[in-house]
Amino acid sequence: MSNKEKFLLSFSAIETFNTCQRKYYYNYLLKLPKKHWPWLTFGNFNHLVLEKFHKYIIFFKKRNKSYDKKALMKRAFYSSIRKSSRLANGGKQAFMTKDQLEASKVLLQKYYKKIEINEPNVLFTEKYFELELGDNITLRGYIDRVDQLGKNKFKITDYKTSKEAYDINKNDQLAIYAIGLRKTLDAEDVEIYKQLDFIKVGKIMPAAEEGQKHDEATDKSLLERLLKTGQNIRDKIATDKDEQQWNYKENAFCFCCDFKSQCFASRVIKNNTNDFEFA
User: Fold this and answer.
1) What is the pLDDT, as a whole number, of residue 272?
2) What pLDDT, on a 0 to 100 scale, did the predictor assign at position 179?
3) Domain boundaries along the sequence of the chain
4) What is the C-alpha separation between 42 and 96, in angstroms, rounded?
5) What single string gives the DSSP state of each residue in 252-276?
6) What are the residues whose beta carbons fall under 8 Å from the beta carbon of 195, sequence distance 6 or more?
7) Contact predicate 143/158, CB 8 Å
8) N or C terminus of the chain: which is more exposed, having fewer CB within 10 Å?
9) Alpha helices (H) along 20-159
10) HEC profile of 30-54
11) Could you tell me which residues are beta bridge partners of residue 255?
């Protein structure tokens, strides 16, 4: 790959590379088919419902029209079922089971009760951003939800459907989103807050209504680190063409890796080759 070509990255791609290079190779270079994991289907469905729900509200607010939040949530739910059904029939994801749909209703009812009285002032859903890291490397992504808290005050909310809540600073995802949002808003004098909404368990982290204020002091070092990682990935793509050159790393997610059969087969072949001796 020429350094003159634009190299596109995402937070997921970087996390995958840092977790296991072999998985990156299978996913982003070979583009092998992925499995349909039930929890991924469930998470994607509920993200879609909430995206549609808030987009409906934004639509009515912009036109100064009244709306019924409960009716819009119901509309978003059934619209998402239709879209998910089309994706399933197209082979892009699995069908939502009856149990999953019932679990989704419970989850969405919890979410609705949370925002019924104190409705957030949602400015964007699935907000796209790009960050030019330098050396023709671009990081891009989508922010689940952006609320406007005040004239120059905004909050990023990222939905999670994991079984347990965890600290907001577990990884760089929301820090990247904060930098991306600032660039998208094209304004320097803004305050950006961050929050994780664990919609499955009904918890938010941190619990403070505004979330956690983003610390700009770390932005420069983070961007430098992302650039370095991007350069490392690009250089490896250019030089390492063989599967065996992309090291696998045992980790907590190997059991649910989309490519574990391929990876295991590759390890067996490699070991058998190393053990073979010529007479």
Assistant:
1) 60
2) 97
3) 1-33+120-270, 38-116
4) 7
5) TTGGG-TTHHHHHHHHHHHHHHHH-
6) 155, 156, 157, 158, 168, 204, 205, 206, 210, 211, 212
7) yes
8) C
9) 21-24, 38-62, 69-89, 98-116
10) CCCCCCCCHHHHHHHHHHHHHHHHH
11) none
Contacts of 39 (CB under 8 A, 6+ apart): 161
Hey, what are 220's tokens?
């420069």
Q: Between 180 and 94, where is the model more confident? A: 180
Per-residue pLDDT, 36? 87
In the prediction, which pLDDT does 270 show? 64
Interval 38-53: pLDDT, tens: 999 999 999 999 999 9
User: Which of 268-273's residues contact partners 24+ apart within 8 Å by CB, and which partners?
Assistant: 270/244
Helix axes 173-185, 219-239, angle to 10 degrees: 110
What lies within 8 Å, CB to CB, of 170 at 6+ separation is none
The class of domain 1-33+120-270 in CATH terms is alpha beta
When pLDDT is averaged across residues 93-117 and rounded to a whole number, the result is 93
Q: Hey, which residues does 169 pair with through a beta bridge?
A: none
What's the CA gap between 279 and 275, in Å, rounded? Answer: 13
pLDDT tens-place string over residues 73-90: 999 999 999 999 988 888
Q: Are 127 and 142 in contact (CB under 8 A)?
A: yes
Looking at residue 277, its pLDDT comes to 42
Q: What percent of the chain has pLDDT over 70?
A: 95
Q: Which amino acid is at 75?
A: R
Residues forming beta bridges with residue 146, ordered by sequence position: 124, 156
Question: How far is 133 from 196, CA to CA, in rounded Å?
Answer: 25
Q: Cα angle vertex 120, ends 119, 126, to 5°?
A: 130
